[in-house]
Amino acid sequence: PEALLAPPGARGYAPEPLGLPSARHALVAYHARRGAAVSPEHLVLTASTSEAYGWLFKLLCEPGDNVLVPVPGYPLFEHLARLEGVEARPYRLPRAHGFALDVGEVEAARDARTRAVLVVNPGNPTGQYLHDGELAALADVCARHGLALISDEVFSDFAWDAEPDRVTTVAGRALPALTFTLSGLSKVAGLPGLKLAWTHVGGPAAARDEALARLEWVADTYLPVGTPVQLALPALLAHAPVFQAAVLERVRGNRQRLLAARPPGATWDVVPAHGGWSAVLRIPREPGEEATCLALLDAGVLAQPGFFYDFGGGAFLVVSLLPEPEEFAAAVGVLARVLGEGPR
């Protein structure tokens, strides 16, 4: 791995605001393997998806504007938006829909200062993917109201199963709204320390090209991505399927262990999902999320309460599916025992 980061030219400096051509061509090949045809001219490299969000909020918003973000969801967008003087305005992923997208909730959350809609595909931690009909309806809403669509796809490669009409990526699709599709090495290749992410810009040609020109100016101001990791990107992406296969084997196996640990008639359930690295459990309202998490912690098991992710309409826990199988099997045994004890 060390040799990958010391290729010929790694100590040189050839600033390319949108990213080195070799890196962007490697991303074209990565998208092609996922069934998406994209152009290298429509790709922008950043040091992280968090940085990409900051750039997009600068691009799309004035201070006091808002962007719509899904809840329940990972609690990062509010902070990223606030740093740019932007409001992260929530729209609900209804429990009745399995925490999948409800376009009516998006329309209801929009106001005159909304500039973009964020989707996380698949949801984190809910694990639900977009589907073709949902994407078409959402793109129509965005086009009618002049909103950009931002699709966070860092976990998109980690599907546990196959579904009809699943949207693997928004990149490369002909949609009537300006689109930005985000991902990066952190999840795709399990390399968060190498600090490289990418954004695909799509949509109507005039809006897309104007956005790219403005993003190039922002990128030229920062030039954040190191040369060595850009030169190494083709090799890193070539290795990514090996990493992903190992992760998928583990999370699928651990999810099955979790499902098998639930006794018949239990008062808790594993929420249906289709991808990602986490599982969501619906638990009794009493004793509730915090008390259950503390009881688990006393027993040596770490879980996260649903309120960390702004779950509503009940009580929930979130557990990681990444631990070693033996460790996870022991943990779910404790989990089943604690949940079976009920209120104290």
UniProtKB/TrEMBL annotation:
CDD domains in the record: AAT_like
The keyword Ion transport is annotated on this UniProt entry: no
InterPro entries registered for this protein in UniProt: Aminotransferase_I/II_large (IPR004839), PyrdxlP-dep_Trfase (IPR015424), PyrdxlP-dep_Trfase_major (IPR015421)
Domain Aminotransferase class I/classII large span(s) in chain numbering: 15-309
Keywords on record: Aminotransferase, Transferase
Molecular functions per Gene Ontology: pyridoxal phosphate binding; transaminase activity
Annotated protein name in UniProt: Pyridoxal phosphate-dependent aminotransferase
